[in-house]
Amino acid sequence: MHRRAKLNVANPTIPMEIRVGKALEAIYVCCFGKGLIEEEDERLLIVMLSSVFPSVNQLEIQRRAKDKASKVAEGSDEYYVSEQSPYLNKL
Fold first, then answer.
1. Ramachandran class of 53: left when φ > 0, alpha when ψ lies in -120 to 50, beta otherwise
2. Would you write out the chain's pLDDT as a tens digit for each of its 91 residues?
3. Distance CA 72, CA 87 (A)
4. Which InterPro entries does its entry note (predicted)?
């Protein structure tokens, strides 16, 4: 932020769909750790993300939540948090 102010450069425009994905990843890491996302949790995630990002298409939010839940269930989640993470050891 300070660097951009010094250089007089505008903040980058990040599409809301990408912000939804990042929010979903953050919620998963903070709330689920390495656990599975159950159907009820998935439904609640969709409600939560739809409330925070009303301008994003509801179907896109549902697709992202279902995709995240299925990737976690099959073990192919790319944002898997390792137990060796130094951030987890500080909690």
1. beta
2. 788 788 888 888 899 999 999 999 999 989 888 789 999 999 999 999 999 999 999 999 999 999 999 998 888 876 554 444 454 444 4
3. 21
4. PSA3
State which amino acid sits at residue 70: S
Q: Exposed/middle/buried for 5, CB within 10 Å: 0-12, 13-18, 19+?
A: exposed
Tell me if 37 sits within 8 A of 77, measured CB to CB. Answer: no
Residue 79: CB atoms within 10 A of its CB come to 13
9 phi/psi in degrees, rounded to 5: -110, 140
Q: In the prediction, which pLDDT does 6 show?
A: 85
Looking up tokens 């689920």, which residue turns up? 32
Q: What would the two tokens of residue 1 be?
A: 């932020």
On whether the CB atoms of residues 25 and 33 are closer than 8 A, the answer is no
